[in-house]
Design a protein that fits this description.
The structure is a single chain. The protein is mostly helical. A hairpin with a 3-residue loop joins β7 and β8. α6 packs antiparallel against α9 and α7 packs antiparallel against α8.
Length: about 400
Protein backbone atom coordinates (compact mmCIF):
# COMPACT_ATOMS: atom_id res chain seq x y z
CA UNK A 1 0.00 0.00 0.00
CA UNK A 2 2.93 2.35 0.56
CA UNK A 3 3.68 2.74 -3.19
CA UNK A 4 -0.01 3.46 -3.77
CA UNK A 5 -0.02 6.12 -1.02
CA UNK A 6 3.10 7.66 -2.55
CA UNK A 7 1.49 7.65 -5.98
CA UNK A 8 -1.66 9.25 -4.59
CA UNK A 9 0.38 11.95 -2.81
CA UNK A 10 2.29 12.72 -6.04
CA UNK A 11 -0.97 12.87 -7.94
CA UNK A 12 -2.53 15.25 -5.42
CA UNK A 13 0.57 17.46 -5.49
CA UNK A 14 0.48 17.60 -9.25
CA UNK A 15 -3.24 18.39 -9.14
CA UNK A 16 -2.64 21.32 -6.75
CA UNK A 17 0.13 22.67 -8.96
CA UNK A 18 -1.98 22.48 -12.10
CA UNK A 19 -4.96 24.04 -10.32
CA UNK A 20 -2.85 27.08 -9.41
CA UNK A 21 -1.66 27.32 -13.01
CA UNK A 22 -5.23 27.27 -14.29
CA UNK A 23 -6.26 29.97 -11.80
CA UNK A 24 -3.34 32.16 -12.92
CA UNK A 25 -4.27 31.59 -16.56
CA UNK A 26 -7.85 32.58 -15.86
CA UNK A 27 -6.68 35.75 -14.09
CA UNK A 28 -4.41 36.61 -17.03
CA UNK A 29 -7.26 35.93 -19.39
CA UNK A 30 -9.59 38.24 -17.46
CA UNK A 31 -6.98 41.02 -17.43
CA UNK A 32 -6.38 40.56 -21.15
CA UNK A 33 -10.11 40.76 -21.85
CA UNK A 34 -10.39 44.01 -19.88
CA UNK A 35 -7.41 45.51 -21.69
CA UNK A 36 -8.78 44.31 -24.97
CA UNK A 37 -12.15 45.94 -24.27
CA UNK A 38 -10.43 49.29 -23.70
CA UNK A 39 -8.24 48.95 -26.77
CA UNK A 40 -11.19 47.86 -28.87
CA UNK A 41 -13.11 50.93 -27.77
CA UNK A 42 -10.18 53.11 -28.78
CA UNK A 43 -9.93 51.40 -32.15
CA UNK A 44 -13.66 51.78 -32.68
CA UNK A 45 -13.43 55.51 -31.97
CA UNK A 46 -10.52 55.91 -34.39
CA UNK A 47 -12.34 53.96 -37.06
CA UNK A 48 -15.47 56.05 -36.54
CA UNK A 49 -13.45 59.27 -36.86
CA UNK A 50 -11.93 58.06 -40.10
CA UNK A 51 -15.27 56.94 -41.46
CA UNK A 52 -16.85 60.28 -40.55
CA UNK A 53 -13.98 62.11 -42.22
CA UNK A 54 -14.37 60.09 -45.41
CA UNK A 55 -18.14 60.61 -45.31
CA UNK A 56 -17.71 64.37 -44.97
CA UNK A 57 -15.27 64.38 -47.86
CA UNK A 58 -17.64 62.47 -50.10
CA UNK A 59 -20.70 64.56 -49.16
CA UNK A 60 -18.87 67.80 -49.69
CA UNK A 61 -17.44 66.60 -52.95
CA UNK A 62 -20.87 65.45 -54.15
CA UNK A 63 -22.25 68.94 -53.47
CA UNK A 64 -19.61 70.41 -55.76
CA UNK A 65 -21.21 68.89 -58.86
CA UNK A 66 -20.70 65.94 -61.14
CA UNK A 67 -17.41 67.25 -62.46
CA UNK A 68 -15.83 67.08 -59.03
CA UNK A 69 -17.44 63.89 -57.66
CA UNK A 70 -15.48 60.92 -56.42
CA UNK A 71 -16.55 57.47 -57.60
CA UNK A 72 -18.16 55.29 -54.91
CA UNK A 73 -14.93 53.26 -54.68
CA UNK A 74 -11.51 54.72 -55.32
CA UNK A 75 -8.82 53.04 -57.37
CA UNK A 76 -6.14 51.22 -55.43
CA UNK A 77 -3.80 54.19 -55.85
CA UNK A 78 -6.51 56.52 -54.54
CA UNK A 79 -6.63 58.62 -57.74
CA UNK A 80 -9.20 59.62 -60.32
CA UNK A 81 -8.66 59.11 -64.02
CA UNK A 82 -6.79 62.42 -64.23
CA UNK A 83 -4.46 61.49 -61.37
CA UNK A 84 -6.00 63.71 -58.67
CA UNK A 85 -8.24 62.97 -55.66
CA UNK A 86 -11.13 65.22 -54.66
CA UNK A 87 -12.33 65.41 -51.08
CA UNK A 88 -13.97 67.89 -48.79
CA UNK A 89 -12.02 67.84 -45.51
CA UNK A 90 -11.09 69.86 -42.49
CA UNK A 91 -8.44 72.48 -43.29
CA UNK A 92 -5.02 70.82 -42.92
CA UNK A 93 -1.74 70.30 -44.69
CA UNK A 94 -1.97 69.17 -48.30
CA UNK A 95 -5.47 70.60 -48.82
CA UNK A 96 -6.28 73.36 -51.29
CA UNK A 97 -9.59 75.23 -51.77
CA UNK A 98 -10.76 76.50 -55.16
CA UNK A 99 -13.95 78.38 -55.92
CA UNK A 100 -16.03 77.39 -58.90
CA UNK A 101 -19.25 79.41 -59.26
CA UNK A 102 -21.23 79.45 -56.06
CA UNK A 103 -19.70 76.18 -54.75
CA UNK A 104 -16.44 75.44 -52.98
CA UNK A 105 -14.41 72.48 -54.25
CA UNK A 106 -11.71 71.02 -52.03
CA UNK A 107 -8.79 69.33 -53.74
CA UNK A 108 -6.68 66.96 -51.60
CA UNK A 109 -3.16 66.30 -52.74
CA UNK A 110 -1.97 62.78 -53.37
CA UNK A 111 0.24 62.81 -50.27
CA UNK A 112 -2.69 63.79 -48.02
CA UNK A 113 -4.84 61.03 -49.53
CA UNK A 114 -2.11 58.45 -48.98
CA UNK A 115 -1.69 59.60 -45.38
CA UNK A 116 -5.40 59.09 -44.63
CA UNK A 117 -5.39 55.67 -46.28
CA UNK A 118 -2.24 54.69 -44.39
CA UNK A 119 -3.77 55.67 -41.05
CA UNK A 120 -6.92 53.70 -41.81
CA UNK A 121 -4.98 50.57 -42.81
CA UNK A 122 -2.74 50.82 -39.74
CA UNK A 123 -5.69 50.98 -37.34
CA UNK A 124 -7.43 48.13 -39.17
CA UNK A 125 -4.31 45.93 -38.98
CA UNK A 126 -3.83 46.67 -35.28
CA UNK A 127 -7.46 45.77 -34.63
CA UNK A 128 -7.05 42.46 -36.50
CA UNK A 129 -3.88 41.59 -34.55
CA UNK A 130 -5.47 42.32 -31.18
CA UNK A 131 -8.55 40.34 -32.13
CA UNK A 132 -6.40 37.35 -33.11
CA UNK A 133 -4.44 37.57 -29.85
CA UNK A 134 -7.62 37.67 -27.78
CA UNK A 135 -9.14 34.72 -29.66
CA UNK A 136 -5.95 32.69 -29.18
CA UNK A 137 -6.01 33.29 -25.43
CA UNK A 138 -9.69 32.39 -25.33
CA UNK A 139 -8.97 29.09 -27.09
CA UNK A 140 -6.22 28.29 -24.58
CA UNK A 141 -8.57 28.81 -21.67
CA UNK A 142 -11.31 26.76 -23.35
CA UNK A 143 -8.82 23.98 -24.07
CA UNK A 144 -8.09 23.81 -20.35
CA UNK A 145 -11.83 23.47 -19.81
CA UNK A 146 -11.34 23.90 -16.07
CA UNK A 147 -9.14 20.79 -16.00
CA UNK A 148 -5.96 21.02 -13.94
CA UNK A 149 -4.09 19.13 -16.68
CA UNK A 150 -5.50 20.49 -19.88
CA UNK A 151 -2.56 19.12 -21.83
CA UNK A 152 -3.55 15.56 -20.99
CA UNK A 153 -7.30 15.98 -21.11
CA UNK A 154 -9.50 14.50 -23.83
CA UNK A 155 -10.33 17.36 -26.16
CA UNK A 156 -12.24 15.29 -28.73
CA UNK A 157 -15.85 16.21 -29.40
CA UNK A 158 -18.81 13.84 -29.27
CA UNK A 159 -18.84 13.64 -33.08
CA UNK A 160 -15.12 12.83 -33.23
CA UNK A 161 -15.50 10.03 -30.67
CA UNK A 162 -18.53 8.67 -32.56
CA UNK A 163 -16.54 8.71 -35.80
CA UNK A 164 -13.70 6.68 -34.26
CA UNK A 165 -16.20 4.26 -32.74
CA UNK A 166 -17.96 3.76 -36.07
CA UNK A 167 -14.61 3.19 -37.80
CA UNK A 168 -13.79 0.43 -35.30
CA UNK A 169 -17.24 -1.13 -35.80
CA UNK A 170 -16.72 -1.08 -39.57
CA UNK A 171 -13.32 -2.80 -39.28
CA UNK A 172 -14.73 -5.59 -37.11
CA UNK A 173 -17.77 -6.03 -39.36
CA UNK A 174 -15.62 -6.22 -42.50
CA UNK A 175 -13.34 -8.83 -40.93
CA UNK A 176 -16.24 -11.01 -39.73
CA UNK A 177 -18.11 -10.87 -43.06
CA UNK A 178 -15.00 -11.67 -45.11
CA UNK A 179 -13.61 -14.43 -42.89
CA UNK A 180 -16.66 -16.03 -41.23
CA UNK A 181 -19.39 -16.43 -43.83
CA UNK A 182 -19.71 -20.23 -43.99
CA UNK A 183 -21.59 -22.73 -41.85
CA UNK A 184 -19.61 -24.33 -39.01
CA UNK A 185 -20.45 -27.69 -37.49
CA UNK A 186 -20.81 -27.27 -33.68
CA UNK A 187 -19.07 -30.61 -33.10
CA UNK A 188 -15.90 -29.11 -34.58
CA UNK A 189 -15.81 -26.35 -31.98
CA UNK A 190 -13.26 -27.09 -29.20
CA UNK A 191 -14.29 -27.06 -25.55
CA UNK A 192 -12.81 -23.63 -24.85
CA UNK A 193 -14.63 -22.21 -27.88
CA UNK A 194 -17.94 -23.75 -26.74
CA UNK A 195 -17.69 -22.00 -23.38
CA UNK A 196 -16.96 -18.67 -25.07
CA UNK A 197 -19.85 -18.98 -27.54
CA UNK A 198 -22.28 -20.11 -24.81
CA UNK A 199 -21.29 -16.97 -22.87
CA UNK A 200 -22.38 -14.92 -25.90
CA UNK A 201 -25.66 -16.69 -26.67
CA UNK A 202 -27.67 -19.71 -25.60
CA UNK A 203 -28.49 -20.23 -29.29
CA UNK A 204 -24.87 -20.19 -30.46
CA UNK A 205 -25.25 -23.40 -32.47
CA UNK A 206 -27.98 -21.77 -34.58
CA UNK A 207 -25.59 -18.99 -35.52
CA UNK A 208 -22.90 -21.51 -36.44
CA UNK A 209 -25.18 -23.55 -38.71
CA UNK A 210 -26.85 -20.56 -40.42
CA UNK A 211 -24.44 -19.13 -42.95
CA UNK A 212 -26.00 -15.65 -42.99
CA UNK A 213 -25.75 -15.42 -39.17
CA UNK A 214 -22.26 -16.86 -38.62
CA UNK A 215 -20.50 -13.50 -38.97
CA UNK A 216 -22.66 -12.01 -36.20
CA UNK A 217 -21.43 -14.34 -33.48
CA UNK A 218 -17.80 -13.72 -34.46
CA UNK A 219 -18.38 -9.98 -34.37
CA UNK A 220 -19.80 -10.44 -30.90
CA UNK A 221 -16.81 -12.56 -29.88
CA UNK A 222 -14.26 -9.97 -31.02
CA UNK A 223 -16.15 -7.14 -29.30
CA UNK A 224 -16.47 -9.18 -26.10
CA UNK A 225 -12.69 -9.65 -25.96
CA UNK A 226 -12.10 -5.92 -26.51
CA UNK A 227 -14.66 -5.06 -23.87
CA UNK A 228 -13.43 -7.44 -21.15
CA UNK A 229 -9.70 -6.98 -21.81
CA UNK A 230 -9.59 -3.19 -22.48
CA UNK A 231 -12.77 -1.11 -22.16
CA UNK A 232 -13.94 -2.67 -18.90
CA UNK A 233 -10.45 -2.76 -17.33
CA UNK A 234 -9.65 0.69 -15.95
CA UNK A 235 -6.15 1.84 -17.03
CA UNK A 236 -5.16 -1.70 -18.12
CA UNK A 237 -4.16 -0.27 -21.52
CA UNK A 238 -1.05 1.26 -19.87
CA UNK A 239 0.10 -2.07 -18.41
CA UNK A 240 -1.20 -4.80 -16.13
CA UNK A 241 0.68 -3.53 -13.06
CA UNK A 242 -0.52 0.04 -13.51
CA UNK A 243 -4.05 -1.15 -14.25
CA UNK A 244 -4.17 -3.33 -11.13
CA UNK A 245 -2.97 -0.46 -8.92
CA UNK A 246 -5.50 1.95 -10.44
CA UNK A 247 -8.29 -0.62 -10.09
CA UNK A 248 -7.56 -1.07 -6.36
CA UNK A 249 -7.71 2.67 -5.77
CA UNK A 250 -10.83 2.89 -7.92
CA UNK A 251 -12.55 0.29 -5.75
CA UNK A 252 -11.61 2.21 -2.62
CA UNK A 253 -12.69 5.65 -3.83
CA UNK A 254 -15.89 4.56 -5.59
CA UNK A 255 -17.28 3.18 -2.32
CA UNK A 256 -16.26 6.09 -0.09
CA UNK A 257 -16.28 9.25 -2.25
CA UNK A 258 -19.16 11.04 -3.95
CA UNK A 259 -19.74 10.18 -7.59
CA UNK A 260 -18.62 13.67 -8.65
CA UNK A 261 -15.35 13.44 -6.70
CA UNK A 262 -14.77 9.88 -7.90
CA UNK A 263 -15.28 10.80 -11.57
CA UNK A 264 -12.88 13.75 -11.23
CA UNK A 265 -10.26 11.49 -9.63
CA UNK A 266 -10.80 8.80 -12.28
CA UNK A 267 -10.35 11.22 -15.18
CA UNK A 268 -7.38 12.97 -13.56
CA UNK A 269 -5.61 9.64 -12.97
CA UNK A 270 -6.27 8.68 -16.58
CA UNK A 271 -4.78 11.98 -17.76
CA UNK A 272 -1.67 11.43 -15.65
CA UNK A 273 -1.17 7.94 -17.13
CA UNK A 274 -1.75 9.35 -20.63
CA UNK A 275 0.88 12.05 -20.10
CA UNK A 276 3.63 9.78 -18.76
CA UNK A 277 2.87 6.39 -20.37
CA UNK A 278 2.23 5.03 -23.84
CA UNK A 279 -0.23 2.16 -24.43
CA UNK A 280 1.54 -1.00 -23.31
CA UNK A 281 2.50 -3.10 -26.33
CA UNK A 282 2.52 -6.20 -24.14
CA UNK A 283 -1.17 -5.67 -23.42
CA UNK A 284 -1.94 -4.99 -27.10
CA UNK A 285 -0.07 -8.12 -28.17
CA UNK A 286 -1.74 -10.24 -25.48
CA UNK A 287 -5.26 -9.18 -26.52
CA UNK A 288 -4.35 -9.67 -30.19
CA UNK A 289 -3.15 -13.22 -29.50
CA UNK A 290 -6.27 -14.09 -27.50
CA UNK A 291 -8.61 -12.93 -30.28
CA UNK A 292 -6.53 -14.55 -33.03
CA UNK A 293 -6.38 -17.89 -31.24
CA UNK A 294 -10.15 -17.81 -30.67
CA UNK A 295 -11.13 -17.13 -34.30
CA UNK A 296 -8.29 -18.35 -36.57
CA UNK A 297 -9.39 -21.99 -36.74
CA UNK A 298 -12.83 -20.94 -38.09
CA UNK A 299 -11.62 -18.42 -40.71
CA UNK A 300 -12.31 -19.24 -44.36
CA UNK A 301 -9.16 -17.45 -45.54
CA UNK A 302 -5.78 -19.15 -45.64
CA UNK A 303 -3.54 -16.12 -45.06
CA UNK A 304 -3.09 -16.29 -41.28
CA UNK A 305 -0.49 -13.50 -41.24
CA UNK A 306 -2.90 -11.09 -42.90
CA UNK A 307 -5.62 -12.13 -40.44
CA UNK A 308 -3.34 -11.52 -37.46
CA UNK A 309 -2.29 -8.13 -38.85
CA UNK A 310 -5.93 -7.08 -39.21
CA UNK A 311 -6.72 -8.24 -35.68
CA UNK A 312 -3.76 -6.26 -34.32
CA UNK A 313 -4.96 -3.11 -36.12
CA UNK A 314 -8.39 -3.57 -34.53
CA UNK A 315 -6.87 -4.04 -31.06
CA UNK A 316 -4.62 -0.98 -31.51
CA UNK A 317 -7.63 1.17 -32.43
CA UNK A 318 -9.52 -0.19 -29.41
CA UNK A 319 -6.52 0.53 -27.16
CA UNK A 320 -6.48 4.15 -28.30
CA UNK A 321 -10.19 4.44 -27.52
CA UNK A 322 -9.51 2.88 -24.12
CA UNK A 323 -7.03 5.66 -23.29
CA UNK A 324 -9.72 8.20 -24.18
CA UNK A 325 -12.35 6.48 -22.03
CA UNK A 326 -10.00 6.45 -19.02
CA UNK A 327 -9.50 10.23 -19.05
CA UNK A 328 -12.93 11.41 -20.17
CA UNK A 329 -16.64 10.94 -19.57
CA UNK A 330 -16.99 8.56 -22.53
CA UNK A 331 -17.41 4.81 -21.92
CA UNK A 332 -18.56 1.56 -23.53
CA UNK A 333 -21.27 -0.78 -22.20
CA UNK A 334 -21.84 -4.38 -23.33
CA UNK A 335 -24.60 -5.40 -20.91
CA UNK A 336 -28.08 -4.24 -19.98
CA UNK A 337 -26.92 -1.49 -17.57
CA UNK A 338 -23.74 -0.04 -15.99
CA UNK A 339 -22.37 -2.45 -13.39
CA UNK A 340 -24.27 -5.45 -14.76
CA UNK A 341 -22.42 -8.64 -15.75
CA UNK A 342 -25.23 -10.07 -17.90
CA UNK A 343 -24.32 -10.78 -21.51
CA UNK A 344 -27.75 -11.91 -22.80
CA UNK A 345 -31.18 -13.02 -21.60
CA UNK A 346 -32.40 -9.56 -20.51
CA UNK A 347 -35.21 -7.41 -22.00
CA UNK A 348 -34.26 -5.29 -24.98
CA UNK A 349 -33.85 -1.66 -23.98
CA UNK A 350 -34.44 0.36 -27.15
CA UNK A 351 -32.99 3.47 -25.51
CA UNK A 352 -29.52 1.96 -25.70
CA UNK A 353 -29.98 -0.97 -28.13
CA UNK A 354 -30.66 -1.31 -31.84
CA UNK A 355 -32.29 -4.59 -32.90
CA UNK A 356 -30.50 -6.00 -35.97
CA UNK A 357 -32.64 -9.15 -36.24
CA UNK A 358 -35.08 -11.47 -34.46
CA UNK A 359 -35.43 -15.24 -34.12
CA UNK A 360 -39.06 -14.82 -33.08
CA UNK A 361 -41.49 -12.38 -31.50
CA UNK A 362 -39.69 -12.35 -28.16
CA UNK A 363 -38.00 -9.06 -27.13
CA UNK A 364 -35.38 -10.76 -24.96
CA UNK A 365 -31.83 -10.08 -26.06
CA UNK A 366 -30.26 -13.30 -27.38
CA UNK A 367 -26.86 -11.83 -28.29
CA UNK A 368 -25.10 -8.48 -28.04
CA UNK A 369 -23.17 -7.98 -31.26
CA UNK A 370 -21.43 -4.75 -30.23
CA UNK A 371 -21.42 -2.44 -27.17
CA UNK A 372 -23.09 0.94 -26.93
CA UNK A 373 -21.09 4.17 -26.63
CA UNK A 374 -22.07 6.36 -23.67
CA UNK A 375 -21.18 9.73 -22.21
CA UNK A 376 -21.75 10.36 -18.51
CA UNK A 377 -22.55 13.85 -17.29
CA UNK A 378 -25.49 14.48 -14.95
CA UNK A 379 -27.05 11.48 -16.68
CA UNK A 380 -25.88 8.99 -19.27
CA UNK A 381 -26.20 10.07 -22.90
CA UNK A 382 -26.28 7.40 -25.61
CA UNK A 383 -24.00 8.40 -28.51
CA UNK A 384 -24.16 5.08 -30.40
CA UNK A 385 -26.59 2.28 -29.59
CA UNK A 386 -25.52 -1.33 -29.05
CA UNK A 387 -26.34 -3.86 -31.79
CA UNK A 388 -28.41 -6.85 -30.61
CA UNK A 389 -30.42 -9.78 -31.89
CA UNK A 390 -33.53 -10.86 -30.00
Amino acid sequence: MEPLRSQLADTQGELTKKTLQVRQLRADHKTALNNWALEKQGFAEKLQQLENEVKRLRQSNAAAGDSAKLPPRAREDGKQADGTSYFSAPISEGVEKTRGGDDDTVVITRSRMQEVESRFKKVTNELAEKTKLCEDLQRRVQAQGGNPDGAGSCELTDDQIKERWQELRAKIRTLSVEQFNDKIQPKLVPEKGRAEFEHLSAQWKSYMTSGHLTSYIFRALIWRYLYTCLFDKYCRVWGKEHGDAATKLSGLFSSKASDTDFQEWRMHTGRMFHKVCAPDQGVVNDVTTKIFDAIAIFATGTDTEALKKTVKEIVAAAAELSTIFARSRFSALMSDSPGSTLTHGFPCNEAIMEVKGKFGSDTTVDIMISPCLLKKEAHYTVLVKAEVIC
